[in-house]
Design a protein that fits this description.
With about 325 residues, the chain is an alpha+beta fold. The protein is built from 8 helices and 15 strands.
Length: about 325
């Protein structure tokens, strides 16, 4: 049995309201109106902090909540950001050193965008099931906007923050039991969103969508089909009926995306997702962790939740989690 939680989050204090984003003034009216209609009210700003700077307090808080000394941690998995502070350097071992998790097995997981956190959770579960010496794994994700502009056309507005979750070999003390998780990917979309960074100063980096029509239509249709198949596969494999799912959770992109997925799934997306979208914007791999944590307060013991995660690189993940009787 694999336990998920506690989850801890950390956000920088500085906030910026979406109408005050400096890049909006230079956008065409159609894009400016779109940015203001996403259902995002404000985002947090990391300033000069690195992703590891954001990750450290989230990781420390999760360990404190679990009553676990960093020195006793068996494994540490860092969900890598899209723009590391240095090439060749190790962000994961920098986090290990700052936490004091000297004996932990350490690695980073990336390349799948938002879904990298799902891959990290799957790796954590595999470690716990495959190695009897491994009993505790800390998964840490941090989001820091890589470009000066936070508006990602035609999708969302990016915010900064971090979250950490303890994954354990027992559900005792955990908020959820991880019933099952699957991750799929498709390299046809590998560079649909990209930043050309070679020989370009960081202050001139621009996040570009290579084909907005492909993102808005082809990938949306493909994602709907992928999730339908993936959800059906996982539910059938675990003997769970769709009507037994109490909550559908996913990452936070926009109010329009929630409407699309509610219609596609035939079920509403948990309201905690839209609340976090409004206050934080899109946080990449951090989204699903804070949404899962907030949903825990609304689910009774034994309730099953379906956690959907997707990325425009493209990758998809579905996880089934069952609420334990641990109080939030």
């Amino acid at each position: 049995m694999i336990g998920i939680g506690p989850v801890a989050r950390w956000f920088p204090e500085q906030e910026i309201r979406i109408p005050d984003l400096p890049e909006l003034a230079g956008l065409p009216s159609r894009q400016r109106e779109h940015a203001l209609s996403l259902g995002i009210e404000r985002v947090r700003c990391a300033g000069a902090r690195t992703e590891v700077d954001l990750a450290v307090p989230a990781a420390q808080a999760a360990l404190t909540q679990a009553g676990l000394d960093p020195a006793a941690l068996d494994a540490l998995i860092l969900v890598q950001g899209r723009a590391p502070q240095y090439l060749l350097a190790s962000e994961a071992t920098r986090l290990q050193h700052r936490l004091g998790a000297a004996r932990a097995f350490v690695t980073g997981v990336g390349e799948l965008g938002c879904v990298s956190v799902s891959a990290a959770l799957r790796m954590a579960a595999a470690l716990l099931r495959g190695d009897p010496r491994c009993r505790t794994v800390l998964v840490v994700a941090a989001a820091r906007t890589a470009t000066p502009a936070r508006y990602r056309s035609p999708m969302t507005v990016l915010g900064d923050g971090a979250a950490a979750v303890l994954v354990t070999a027992t559900a005792t003390g955990s908020r959820y039991e991880l019933v099952d998780i699957a991750v799929r990917s498709d390299g046809r979309y590998a560079d649909l969103f990209r930043i050309d960074y070679r020989d370009v100063p960081g202050e001139r980096w621009i996040e570009e969508c290579a084909d907005e029509a492909m993102y808005s239509f082809r990938l949306a249709v493909d994602s709907s089909k992928r999730f339908a198949a993936l959800n059906a596969e996982l539910l059938a494999h675990n003997g769970i009926l769709a009507e037994d799912i109490s909550a559908y959770l996913m990452q936070n992109l926009s109010a329009g995306a929630f409407a699309f997925w509610s219609e596609s799934l035939g079920r509403p997306i948990h309201p905690g997702c839209s609340a976090n979208l409004a206050r934080y914007g899109h946080l990449g791999p951090v989204d699903v962790l804070i949404n899962l944590d907030d949903a825990a307060a609304t689910l009774p013991p034994g309730a099953a939740a379906l956690l959907l995660n997707s990325s425009p690189v493209a990758a998809w993940s579905t996880a089934i989690l069952r609420r334990t009787d641990v109080e939030v």
